[in-house]
Amino acid sequence: MNYFTSAEIRRIEKELVENLAVSEYLLMENAGSAAADVIMNRFPEGDILVLTGPGKNGGDGYVAARHLAVRGRRVEILSAVQAGSLNGITKKNFRLAVQCGISVSSSSDFSDEEIAGKIQKANLLVDSLLGIGSAGPLRGEIARLCFLSKKAGRIIALDIPTGIDPDTGVADDNCAGVTMTITMVAPKTGVAAGDGRKLAGEVIVAGVGFPLPQNAVPRIRSFSPEDGKRFLPLFSEDIHKGMRGGTMVIGGSTVYRGAPLLSIRSFLRAGGGLGILFSEETSCAPCSSSLPEAITESGLFTKNDCGIIGTLSAWSGRIDTVVLGPGIGRSERAGEICRLVLSAWEGRLILDGDGLYWLSKSGEGIDRGRVLLTPHEGEAAYLLGVSPADVRKDRISAARRIAEKWGPVLLKGFGTLCDDGNQTYLVRAGNRALAVPGSGDVLSGVIAAFLSAGTPLLESAALGAYVHGMAARSLAASKGLDGILAGEIADEIPGILMEMRNRQP
């Protein structure tokens, strides 16, 4: 499922009207009829209360109500505005609904208690108050109806839930949240992430009888299983380990000894070739004993700058990618090391963990064509100079702002977003089993395996997030959602890759 901005949806509708000579009335008729079809199929019984607003979204509600009534449903319409304020095709469909015998009344004529009674009495509430033309906080009767709708047992939103910004997904405090969103033409970006995703329920597309124009451009593309198979690195049967690509993980500290080990482990589990851990002996020693397949370079904090550059140079002919930051900490020397690697390493680079913290402190620009940032919401917040709540509130805009400022980014969280400033992938493969210590370190290693094998930055990020998420799903199916260890996620990856490669077209 791909997601479009409200501006792009309006452009698409305009193109349908102008190029195909389709009337707005026909588009509304088809949309409302399609919505009624979905409602009849999914909720075939019970009384229906339709809440309508002043614009075209309200018009969709009048059309849907008429088609539902024709099919034998008992339908009542409660309008947030007086009939005299309606105009255009919305007014025309209001009149048709009345002529068909549907009860239409104004919410302003009823008390809160009376409206609450109507809402609780109905088996199904249909929200057609505001569509993609809405902006700013809810006000007046619409705010009141949304607040009172929170008492409804089941709500179906037409196009987008009222109170959800159609582009950002930011939710108004009065937004009730819905069971299902029947979206017209195409899904809106506001239901792809953040509050919008949580409050929109199941999203179903109701067509308007005409295909999307070939030049329709989604703002967000859902990462699909087909994408996963298409982006996987291809290896010939006669390869050797060096042809799988090489990665050096730079990180670890006395406090966070295991973080870089998880990155190296997942790099190898995801099909990587040469995996090198550059850390202190406190991390290198356990790595050598628990993961003898990895190569270790100790002395990260004891070597001087020339020594660190020398280590990078010594391996530069055999590695393609550096993962900088897992467990490196926030000591003064850690900051110096991060700044040194950022300036000295000319290959591809994944910045994770405290590597992101030191990037935000450096104030220096980075090469957008070779660096990938992998922040969670807290790390994204200090990259942008805002609060984590601000990032959580509008994840779509936060990811794009980071991409425009720093370069390609993978924003972890509920609905991972991978953005390079031009296009965005939404990856929904994961579940709460990923919310464990070390999970992000595993993710950076998976991405490194694909990146070092030649997959481009953005595609490596999305593919890594997808494989990481599918590993969590697989583990949850056998062990449950809680108590999964990050190392188990890494060890599940080979099976996921096998399933992906064996997937039939």
Number of strands: 18
Helix count, DSSP H or I runs of 4 or more residues: 19
Please state the structural category.
Answer: alpha/beta
What is the CATH topology classification name of the largest domain? UDP-N-acetylmuramoyl-L-alanine:D-glutamate ligase
At CATH's second level, what is the architecture of the largest domain?
Answer: 3-Layer(aba) Sandwich
Largest sheet: 7 strands, parallel
Form type = elongated
Order of strands in the sheet with the most strands?
4-3-2-5-6-7-8
Mean pLDDT score: 94
Strand portion = 5-15%
Poorly predicted residue ranges: none
CATH class of the largest domain, named Alpha Beta
Q: Radius of gyration in whole Å, from Cα?
A: 27 Å
Helix percentage range: 40-55%
Number of domains: 2
Question: Could you give the distance between the termini?
Answer: 18 Å
Characterise the protein shown here.
This protein is 45% helix and 14% strand. It has 505 residues and is of the alpha/beta class. It has a 7-stranded parallel beta sheet with strand order 4-3-2-5-6-7-8, covered by helices on one side. It has a 6-stranded parallel beta sheet with strand order 12-11-10-13-14-15, sandwiched between helices. The mean pLDDT is 94.
